[in-house]
Amino acid sequence: MSSLTDFQSWFGDFGPYYAGVLQMSCGDEYQRYVTDNATSCDGGVGKECIITPLVSCILQNTDPVATANVAAASVLLGLLPTILLQAGANTMHVNFLSLKRPILSLLLSLSCPVVSILKTQAYGEPEVILRGAPVHVPWARNDTERLLALCCQYLIVAGSVANIGHLIWQLSVMSTVGWATHFPYTVTIWVVLAVVLQAISALCLRLRIRLEDAVTTPWLRREFDLGCERTESTRVVLKQESTLFFAVSWLVSTAATMHLMYGTVVLAGLLFISTRNGLIIALRFLASAVAAKAITTYELGSLRSSVGGLSLPELSGAHDGSRLVRHEKKYMDKMPSNT
């Protein structure tokens, strides 16, 4: 068998229907697929010549009502990447959180496999990210309660990642992409590319911003720090823009647009999924994205309470420091008040 798609496991609604079509009309094509017995097609021999005739046979023997049902699901799934961009966590917010909690940020990236299309100047405006009221959990008054809150966050995000992983497996085994029937990893690549692009975007942010803590703490201990809401214990330092920063930010912005296009054509091209099953798939993706956004919002609010100020680098042409002071005051005026 040349693909993850086994043509025995189907999404619930059309399972018996497609099993019947396979048995009654496409037995020969299925046997060639199972035994990897490739026959010549269009002058070539390969995996596509094994699976494409089978997929074509199933589609040709599908009645128009079922075809329309699958087409409606394709429209819904094709819109899903754009919907996730609106409902999920903003990539810049996740990147900013990665300065404090990189492991949690990685899990959040897996929970929402889309990348926000950001402008270059967004990386140099931390006051926009930090604007807003700090978030405090009323019942998290001691380390035990804070530990419980932290464990709940990681359990929720772990469940979201597991949900995405199960969806990837289902879409790879129970469906196939019409324009790449011989390649079962298109959905997997969509998710992996999202994580890679978010990691590069986080690197771009680190080229522009760093956090200075009042107390130096190893990164792993900081990841699980229960005192993340210590007031004004952290300072945001804005670095000078560099050629590397501009190159990476342009790359991420361009790649994010292409990733959105890729996700759209991949999910819209999925076959053998009914409208009801497509809606369930979309809601499961959406649930993980909303959970990631909720955790990001909470963590960002906690981070706001720990930021005590913003420093800008000395700008070229300013020798007396007065220009730096004016810029720092301008940015500090935009910072949230922790009182």
TrEMBL record:
It comes from the Eukaryota. The chain crosses the membrane at residues 147-171, 183-205, 244-273. Keywords: Membrane, Transmembrane, Transmembrane helix. This is Uncharacterized protein.
